[in-house]
Amino acid sequence: MEFWKTSASSLREKAIPQSSEKQASQKNRKILQNKKDSFQAIRQLENAYGKYVFGANDNRCVIKVSRKSEYQENTFDQSREALNENRLFEKKTSGARLFSDSHKKEESAVIYEETVGNISAERMFKNLKSAVQKENRQTLKEMMPEKAEVEKKVFQNIKASIEALKEEKNTSETVPFLRRIMNPFVPEDVVPEDDDQDNTYS
Q: pTM (2 decimals)?
């Protein structure tokens, strides 16, 4: 895409501050029980024309890729920026799931989701690049050009997200046991109310 030649295409990245352990526990519970298509954002990478949001949904690593501004193009449909959770189209690809708008499969924003397990950042990045090449998804192709500086930043954010997700998983397995020892009379499921909004696919 021509917009990658402009100064406004420079990618800016940031880590999204995470909640405290108890707030995160409640948020994860909401994700699993109330919002099937929700995910917790961990990192963000964006420029004037599009955005990547890297996050987690239970034990899956999620990447949402979207366009948010036209560059010498006809005005495009809103689905390129945000997906409607009531009309998600799922496509299984190598080791992952790819979600797009069921009415605008080729043009819409894309959500790439892969189970973490023992996967490495290198393998997940390779799988994502394979999806870019094999799947006819315009937004994904435009935001993942074969440019070394773009690929490097995407890979770095995948790696940081996987590491954060694995660290959170290890913490969640350890803390409840410690809580039972330190606070034997406090029910483990009691968590404070959290009014923070969850990030959703839509």
A: 0.74
DSSP string, the chain: -GGGGSGGG--EEEEPPPPPHHHHHHHHHHHHHT-TTB-EEEEEEE-SSEEEEEEEETTEEEEEEEE-S-SSS----GGGT---GGGEEEEEETTEEEEEETTSTTTS-EEEEEE-TT--HHHHHHHHHHHHHHS--HHHHHHS-S-HHHHHHHHHHHHHHHHHHHHHHHHHHHHHHHHHHH-TTS-TT------PPPPB--
40-46/110-115 β-pairing: unpaired
Single-letter code of the amino acid located at 104: K
The Cβ of residue 145 has, within 10 Å, a number of other Cβ atoms equal to 13
Is pLDDT above 60 for 116?
A: yes
Smallest Cα–Cα separation from 109: which of 131, 80, 130? 80
The span from the CA of 202 to the CA of 193, in Å, is 24
pLDDT at 166 over 90: no
